[in-house]
Amino acid sequence: MCRDKRVGAASFLYPLRGPAGWPSASAPLYFEPTNEECSLDEIIAGIGVKIRLLRQAEGLSLQQLAERSGVSAASIHKIERNAMVPTITTLMKLATALDRSIAYLVDEEVDHSSAAVLIRAKERNVLSGSRKGVQLENIAGPLGRYALAGAVVTVEPGADSGKAPLVVQGEELVYLLSGELEFEVDKTFLLRQGDALHLRTECPHRWRNPGVRPARAVWMSLRGR
Question: What is the DSSP letter of 33?
């Protein structure tokens, strides 16, 4: 049984700015940032989240992405947790390694006039990473603005998460629309159409499609910060 590491409520009280951006001990618990500060904070926070989700979607460890990009694993870890703002050079290396443009990593088109974001079926952003046989269609709002990520994921027969188990603090909920998916967590779970699996992702886990046709699932992810 993996140890429960739920995120403390304090994580949600302040904007995510990294150590240098936290309010001092004497600062009020709640404050109203300006529109410019809010936008900049969201863009910076979104960079780390996008890099982390892209890396995990491709089944890469921090070390594997470090070797591919030429950026140290320690730096990538800090960027993903918004503890360090990457330089343009670092962004270029990471964007190239993840087969994305710098514009994708820093773009944040947010409508602050509404608390909700509608993603039309025909307007989903399709992410096809370097991991062969896996495609993600985004169904969630902008990264940095929302803590919950979600995608319709298609996994081709034989495709998997990689040889190394995945480990990251957070939770995932997978609802299988069609096909089969096999998960190895503390034991093996075989999902068929209509099945759902909710797992704590700090437990080492793997997944694969053992079937003969593509598996399609709604995949929700909530990461600890």
Answer: -
